[in-house]
Amino acid sequence: MEVKGSSKKMIATQEEMVANKVPIPYRDQCAHLLIPLNKCRQAEFYLPWKCENERHSYEKCEYELVMERMLQMQKIREEEAKFKQGGSIPLIPKTANT
C-alpha cells in the first residue's frame, strides 16, 4: 500500500498489525520491522543486549521517516517564505490601486 507523501511503502497489512497487537501509534511504514522485534523481545524477556539487529533496523527505519518528514516541512517553509516575499500572483493588480 502506498502512503501519500512518503517514499516508503506499507509492507505490513492491517490484519498483520492487529494480529501481532501493534499499538496504533506505531502502525507506520516501519511496522513490518516492529513485529519481529517485539517477538524477539518477548522471547528474550526484554533483555537490552538481545535483539540488537532487529532494534537497529527498526530504529533506522524510523529515523529515515523522521528525516523525510523534516525535509518535506523544510520545503513547505521555503515555499511559504517565497509567497511572503511577493513571489505569488497578487489578487489585486498594483495598477488598480492608483
TrEMBL record:
InterPro entries recorded: NDUB7
Compartments it resides in: Mitochondrion inner membrane; Mitochondrion intermembrane space
Topology relative to the membrane: Peripheral membrane protein
GO terms under cellular component: mitochondrial inner membrane; mitochondrial intermembrane space
Top-level lineage group: Eukaryota
Chain segments annotated as coiled-coil in the UniProt record: none
Primary subcellular site in the record, as a coarse category: mitochondrion
PROSITE patterns membership: CHCH (PS51808)
Keywords per UniProt: Disulfide bond, Electron transport, Membrane, Mitochondrion, Mitochondrion inner membrane, Respiratory chain, Transport
Role description: Accessory subunit of the mitochondrial membrane respiratory chain NADH dehydrogenase (Complex I), that is believed not to be involved in catalysis. Complex I functions in the transfer of electrons from NADH to the respiratory chain. The immediate electron acceptor for the enzyme is believed to be ubiquinone.
Family indicated by similarity: Belongs to the complex I NDUFB7 subunit family.
Cross-referenced PANTHER family: NADH DEHYDROGENASE [UBIQUINONE] 1 BETA SUBCOMPLEX SUBUNIT 7, NADH:UBIQUINONE OXIDOREDUCTASE B18-LIKE SUBUNIT
Protein name per UniProt: NADH dehydrogenase [ubiquinone] 1 beta subcomplex subunit 7
